[in-house]
Q: What sequence folds into this?
């Protein structure tokens, strides 16, 4: 009944008079913020509506405009506890009298880098944060916007691989750059123990960048097994790399198509593959390698790591992982990780080349 009376025009007027008499020494900060519509997941740069309830428990009006205007403020904070972008202020829909509340719809734009963030909310008065004012926060997983995702099946199906084999699998600007990268990767593998007699498993072989590098390098005692989820890419490799000890087959998202008897392999390589798979898929592919590698065998793989990511964030176009989480996952499926090299990638991410030894 009391509540009902409070919401009538007479009730509001009485409150206004009462609080106006009591008021001016009262701090703005007495109030409550609560999230009526929060979004636990979001996409980079794609705005979504949040609804925040603001309750004025103080004895003062909270003006919508003017020098002492009260406003809502939000800010993204990354896992590293650094703010990710500027604080954004939203005006109240109307002046809030003491005891009043309003549900404020706010268009919130997530940060540009995927990751695991906290979205913090508080109140400002006259443009400054209110000490001891109401605050609220929510955890938000920010993924890459889907429009930039990759469908490799579509990519391979629609490409002319005879002319575009070097272009479809990465950001290479020319066939020569693709060939240089292929030779450089072979050099790195030699440093990691590759010999002409090695048995190599290439998961996510694409259009054969490493088959090209190894075709003239491996002896007849060595062997190369390439697999990819892209049937067209595998068929292209079969047509192009025809040595009898070179084998290609279509794999599943989390399975390698070769029987255990095809091993044991000395090296399993994943170049630019875990940069496109979800962490649980990467774990299952590593478990397949544990099946196929010899006891002294190793995986060589690159991953994109970001301190803004708790586990993994991204999509098939680009997956970023938390470094420690990925290393723990690799250990859980039977590998001892070692860092080979670090490459710059983006403002908040770098690319690691890892060696994972059987343990
Ligand atoms: C960026 S390309 C790199 C190709 C090749 N490794 C290279 O460096 O040129 C990524 C490749 O991984 C393949 N791929 C993605 N997910 C895969 C999975 N779960 N198993 C096997 N191949 C996969 C894609 O079809 C694509 O050919």
A:
């Amino acid at each position: 009944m009391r509540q009902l009376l409070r919401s009538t025009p007479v009730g509001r007027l009485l409150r206004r008079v009462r609080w106006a008499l009591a008021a001016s020494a009262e701090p703005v900060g007495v109030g409550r913020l609560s999230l009526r519509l929060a979004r636990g997941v979001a996409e980079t740069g794609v705005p979504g509506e949040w609804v925040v309830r603001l309750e004025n428990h103080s004895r003062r009006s909270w003006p919508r405009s003017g020098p002492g205007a009260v406003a809502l403020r939000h800010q993204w904070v990354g896992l590293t506890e650094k703010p990710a972008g500027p604080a954004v202020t939203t005006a109240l829909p109307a002046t809030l009298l003491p005891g009043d509340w309003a549900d404020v719809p706010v268009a919130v734009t997530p940060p540009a880098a995927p990751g695991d963030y906290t979205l913090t909310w508080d109140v400002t008065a006259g443009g400054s944060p209110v000490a001891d004012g109401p605050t609220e926060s929510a955890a938000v997983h920010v993924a890459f916007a889907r429009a930039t995702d990759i469908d490799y099946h579509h990519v391979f199906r629609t490409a002319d691989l005879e002319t575009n084999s070097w272009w479809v699998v990465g950001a290479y600007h020319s066939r020569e750059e693709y060939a240089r990268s292929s030779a450089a990767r072979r050099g790195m593998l030699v440093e990691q123990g590759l010999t002409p007699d090695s048995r190599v498993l290439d998961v996510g072989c694409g259009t054969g960048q490493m088959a090209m590098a190894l075709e003239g390098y491996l002896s007849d005692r060595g062997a190369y097994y390439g697999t990819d989820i892209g049937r067209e890419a595998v068929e292209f490799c079969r047509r192009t790399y025809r040595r009898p000890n070179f084998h290609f087959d279509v794999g599943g998202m989390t399975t390698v198509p070769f029987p255990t008897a095809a091993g044991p392999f000395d090296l399993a390589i994943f170049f630019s593959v875990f940069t496109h798979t979800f962490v649980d898929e990467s774990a299952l592919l590593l478990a397949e390698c544990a099946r196929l590698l010899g006891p002294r065998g190793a995986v060589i793989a690159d991953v994109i790591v970001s301190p803004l990511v708790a586990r993994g964030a991204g999509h098939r176009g680009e997956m970023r992982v938390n470094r420690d989480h990925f290393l723990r996952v690799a250990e859980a499926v039977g590998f001892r990780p070692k860092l080979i090299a670090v490459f710059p990638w983006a403002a908040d991410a770098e690319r690691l080349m890892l060696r994972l030894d059987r343990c």
